[in-house]
Amino acid sequence: MALDFGAMDLRDALDLAILMEEEARERYAGFSRLVGGRYPGDADATFAAMAGFEAKHGEQLRARRRALFHDAPARVRAEDLDDAEAPDRGAPRGFMSPSDAVAVAIAAEEKAFRFFDEALPHVRDPEVRALFAELREEEVDHRRLLLERAGRLPPGPDLAEEEADPPGSDPG
Q1: Looking at the predicted structure, is the pLDDT value of residue 86 above 80?
Q2: 9-76+95-154 maps to CATH 1.20.1260.10
Q3: Where are the domains of the chain?
Q4: Which residues touch 40 (CB under 8 Å, ≥6 apart)?
Q5: I need a surface site. Which of 57, 97, 116, 166 has the fewest CB within 10 A?
Q6: Contact predicate 26/73, CB 8 Å
Q7: What is the reported pTM?
Q8: pLDDT one-digit tens code per residue, 8-57
Q9: Of 115, 90, 108, whose CA–CA distance to 17 is shortest?
Q10: Is the pLDDT of residue 96 over 90?
Q11: Beta carbons of 107 and 88 less than 8 angstroms apart
């Protein structure tokens, strides 16, 4: 099934958003495993934190869906979606700097913003429009927080342990 935003109802929109969060969480978790943790605040810490934020947001969306639609089956499938919010598969590399990892996350937030922004003109259901507009604005806020974090990181191929943000610092 190709995504038809004009025919989408709120249940479909929530399912789509949940799938997007899950895809992004899985991608960030994979990146975290790939780059491995070498010191507090390294690229792994950024990817692990982003995976956690995507998981948290996905659970918030799942709770909202359960409250509205209980256990009604999903009609939107993971196969209908690819890379709408998730960071690019080829982005990580060994010995990435924290700045490079934040840049990957910023690009993913911008991609998610474009997804919702481009979908909105095709959405007819007012509840779906409101949800997509809300999600689009969250991407703007996440990008802003990541840019703030990027401003605190020194540029370069890597940074020393004592210069890193503490693990679990909230980039967005």
Answers
A1: no
A2: yes
A3: 9-76+95-154
A4: 161, 164, 166, 167
A5: 166
A6: no
A7: 0.81
A8: 899 999 999 999 999 999 999 999 988 888 888 888 988 998 999 999 99
A9: 115
A10: no
A11: yes
